[in-house]
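Fig. S4 source data, part A: sequence.
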Amino acid sequence: MLTAPVIRADELETTAETPHLELLPSPVAVAEPAKAFPISPASSPAVPVAQVSTPAGPTARIHWIGSFVDLRHPADLYADMVAGAPNLVVVDARYPEAYAREHLPGAVNLPFRELDLTTTAQLSPDPLYVVYCWNASCHASTRIARRLEALGFQVKELHGGLETWRKQGYPTERG
């Protein structure tokens, strides 16, 4: 299994009297501590200290730039809507004009550019908020999901957005 390199910078000191760079090998076993190999130039002025870790084992946590919010499949959301699931709020993250043309049944419109502490003050923290936008390539729902999650709300993102919802034959509302 290939793993990506993990880079860690410790900024306890910004400079060192003896400048060096430590290369830490990939841990072979969890119980075996990593050995540092100092590399020190003989006569150079104080420079920032950094640590570089080489590829980590398969248990390392690597930050992925993308969505960490759980996805909700349209079939599951529709089943919950038909069953009248309590504590479920569907949120349309698109512009008000797009919401007025077509949206999921019962959805509320919270455009992602307008979402902040004041626009969420009236929202209850109890329900599960399922957010969506145009389609899988539209990132408005991802942005609003991250913001809501950061504000302490339970959030899931509708897989595929309005486009997938429509393609699977589920109803929409206009106006």
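Fig. S4 source data, part B ends here. Strands lie at 7-8, 21-24, 37-39, 50-53, 71-72, 88-92, 108-109, 128-132, 154-158.
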